[in-house]
Structure formats: C-alpha cells, structure tokens
Amino acid sequence: MMKILVVSDIHYPDRRETLPELSEYAKESNLIFALGDFTTAKALKYLKSFGKQVVAVHGNMDEPALRKSLPKTHVVKIEGLKIGLFHGNGGPPGIEARVRSAFRKELNAYVFGHSHKATNKIINGALYFNPGALCGRVQTIGFLYIDFENIWGKIIKIDKNLLPFDK
Known about the structure:
The protein is an alpha/beta fold and 167 residues long. Helix content is 16%, strand content 34%. The chain has a 5-stranded mixed β-sheet with strand order 3-2-1-9-10, with helices on one face. 42% of the residues are buried.
C-alpha cells in the first residue's frame, strides 16, 4: 500500500512565522503532494528536505519564481490510478467543479487546496481531496492511501503544540 502525505497552504512567512514540524508525518509516507501557496521557496525546500519525492503545483499566493518553476496542474499515475493536482481558485462554493474543469480528462482523484477547508468526498465516482491548510486556527494535513487501484483519504488535525521547524 502507498501512503502519500498531502499538504497545502503553508503560507510561510506571510501567515506563519515558522514552518510546521512535519517530519514524523513525512517519515511514514512514500511520497509528498504539495498543493501550492507555500508563499516562498523556503517552504517547498523544507518539504524536499525529508528525502521523499515531492510532486508540487503552484498556488495563487506563491512568489513569482515558484509560479514560474511549478506547474499550475499536474497529473500523476500511480498503480493504474490517474490523480490530478491543482491548487484551486475562486471561493469555496463550487470549488470541486472548478477543480474538475482544470483537467481535460476524467481522473480517479482530484487533489486540491486553496479554500483552506478540508474535503474528503466522492463525487461521480472520483475522490475530491483537500487536506485543508497549514495556516490559520485549524491546521490540517492529509494522507492519501492507494492499494490495488483503490484510493481513499484521511484528514489529520495538527497539534499546534508541536515545536516548529525552522532552518
């Protein structure tokens, strides 16, 4: 079984003074999906420091260098499943339809951020998964699990009392 750590909306340092301590979550993952709004390259570099492959897309609040170096959307194929990554856009109402329309083909899963609201639901047979945000009052991440062409997700609330990481 594959376990993927999914993070979005770190917003460092514009909304967070420190980077969140994610090493224990990364350690138990095979791969990391990063859905943008890192704000600075330092936050993306931090995720890459765990030694796991990081598949990333840019968000609307990312610095110009990140927006230039990362794609807006990306499709990953894992164990026969097609998974689309997209930061997202617009307000929370209707975000799933906008995320779906960012891709040309039907996919097995759509993984997105932007709204800062965790989402884990099936729509028309596809998983729509948003890990929430690592900034704000409620901080969440997510895990995606893939096993024999099945995919499902879990949202994890981060304990704010964890010591922050900052390099």
